[in-house]
Input
Amino acid sequence: MKKSTLEFVITAGPTREFIDPVRFLSNPSTGKMGFAVARAAAAKGHKVTLVSGPVSLGTPKGVKRVDVVSAREMYAAVKSALTPGCVFVATAAVADWRSAVFSNRKLKKTEMTGILKLVRNPDILKSVKGCVKVGFAAETHDVLKEALRKCREKKLAMTVANDVTEAGSGFGSDTNRVSFVFADGSVETFEKMSKLSVARRIVRACEGFCS
Ligand code: C5P
Output
């Protein structure tokens, strides 16, 4: 029987990995794709928790939002939002690395050696279990191959692949040209469309996985 109301947990935006109070490692993610998925899912009557890194976007109607800064905070917020059988859509551009040390006081230029020791952040999407998982693959080359590898490695129902070198696709843009790559290797490629239209298709695919 089809479950008509699903629980979505969605990550969005970048994370910031602070080195000292005034310096951090991050990336240009604006959160637009994740906020669009949250909006599209809530508009279909689904229960939505949106775990967002630092972005300047308003919360979509009907969405519960949890703001975080670092990857480790995002992981903790995701773990407490997950419910068995929920749908986890990971759109966030999580920083893969953080500084091995954090200084509570601003480091002086003269104290810095020019070498920053990094440690890996947790892979949130890979670690989550017991949910239908959808990931993103923002790539510059071998886009579909990488997307399928992610599907298999992270046990995803689907990876949304996009080539971030293409105009009107990826970071900051209001449009995206994506392919859905499924765990069985099948691929559905779409024309360039608004991120909200991509989001509606993602939500529809998730409804299909849970039917
Ligand atoms: O392996 P890669 O970082 O390219 O995978 C991208 C996918 O994994 C995205 O869906 C992203 O949100 C998710 N991810 C994550 N935690 C990380 C790194 C990536 O959830 N530390």
